[in-house]
Amino acid sequence: MAGRPSPFDFRLIVKCTRRCNYTCEYCLDRRSTADADLDFANLARIFHLLGQLEDTKKIQIIWHGGEPLLRGIRFFEKMLFLQAEMVPSHVQVTHVLQTNGSLVDDEWASFFQACGFHLGVSLDGPKAVQDANRPAGKRQSSYEPTLNGISLLEQHGVRVGLLSVANDRVLNLGAVELWGFFKEHGFNRFGVLSLRGNQPDPEAELDYNRRYGQFIVELMRLWLAEDDPDIQIREFRSKLDMFFGLAPGVCKDGGACVGKYYGIEPSGQVYHCDKFCSDSAWRIGHLSDLTFRDLQSSCVVEGIRERETRIRSACEPCEWYSLCKGGCLADTAALLAANGRVGTDDCVQYALYSSMSSFLARSPGVLQAAIDEISSQAKPLPTSLIGVDSNRP
Predict the structure, then answer these.
(1) Of 195, 214, 191, which Cα lies nearest the Cα of 205?
(2) Residue 148 — left, alpha, or beta (φ > 0 → left; ψ -120 to 50 → alpha)?
(3) Residues 349/248, Cβ–Cβ less than 8 Å
């Protein structure tokens, strides 16, 4: 149970385009306006500002869309040229790209492998679900093009993880069917995301949270019963590590996040995280009038950080607050806006924490293995283990 690598010093989520060749019914990010692409001037500004971070050692850039591959390989070759020219060589830059996979060919796959990109591919499930959720142009199938893209990436040795969005079709499909689909195709690295901002009213939002909670708990039970270390479901592995006192593997489990993640729009506008790019209250500034070096101490970021503290503090009555620390800021803000009750299944993550705790309480062998591993590394026993109640149902 080795710990995760040290965290990145700086993370950017860059919307390099808002255009997309799919018309996913739940998507909030797709646009077709004239300013939907990040232009070269703003791309150059990003790397100019990154080059000023003298003390930074590790940077992660997540290329997002829309569909990033619509920008073409030349765009990313220019990006790597700017990085080489402007970012000091001692700085480690990791590139992650989220794609629907349909445009991947041998040239793209070779490029990603040669340049060390990590790829996330969006796949919601079996053909009927995928085609209905994520139609290509004129309602054409997206299933075969996406699977073909995944296959090409794997053939070229590119590190690939899949992301499924749990809308009504996926929830109705059920955890057993989704689990069976991923296993049948040998997809061993995936995550299942909750919807955001798609419900018609607050009660529907809370009802969705409860249904998603039930779904994700059932999926977790299947994963635990399988007991296969080669199958990595990011939400579960991250929380399991947290229970054992290790660093979480996903941002939503890391607690306070303002000042750690920045979302950049094609226009050059900078926000706290890409989940807030439609809300001016979370806007930090424009690439042309700020410096990454001074962001942490800026008055704007300090004001946003105070807002984050107020939102997270509302979760303090929850029994999992010491571990969760308020979860994903966007999810918690949405919960409070819907008048949801913290510490209940109104929260999209509550059921998962409770069920994982129950599993650990009933699994003394797993707990002892974790304690032995932590003790061998001369680490103090984490309070998340000390606090596990063996009488919890």
Answers:
(1) 195
(2) alpha
(3) no
What was the pLDDT predicted at 124? 97
Structure tokens at 63: 């290329």
pLDDT for the residue 374: 52
Q: Are 264 and 15 in contact (CB under 8 A)?
A: yes
> Which residues of the chain are modeled with pLDDT < 70?
1-7, 364-393
Task: Please state the pTM of the whole predicted model.
Answer: 0.89
- Our CA dihedral for 288, 292, 296, 299, rounded to 10 degrees, sits at -10
**What pLDDT does residue 326 have?**
95
Tell me, what's the pLDDT at 32?
77
Cα 378 to Cα 112: distance, rounded to the nearest angstrom: 39
Q: Where would I find the beta strands (DSSP E) of 7-145? A: 10-15, 58-64, 92-99, 118-122
**Long-range Cβ contacts of 249-257 (<8 Å, 24+ apart):** 249/4, 250/191, 251/328, 252/327, 252/328, 252/331, 252/349, 253/324, 253/327, 254/7, 254/325, 255/312, 255/325, 255/326, 256/305, 256/308, 256/309, 256/312, 256/325, 256/326, 257/308, 257/329
Domains of the chain: 10-294 (3.20.20.70)
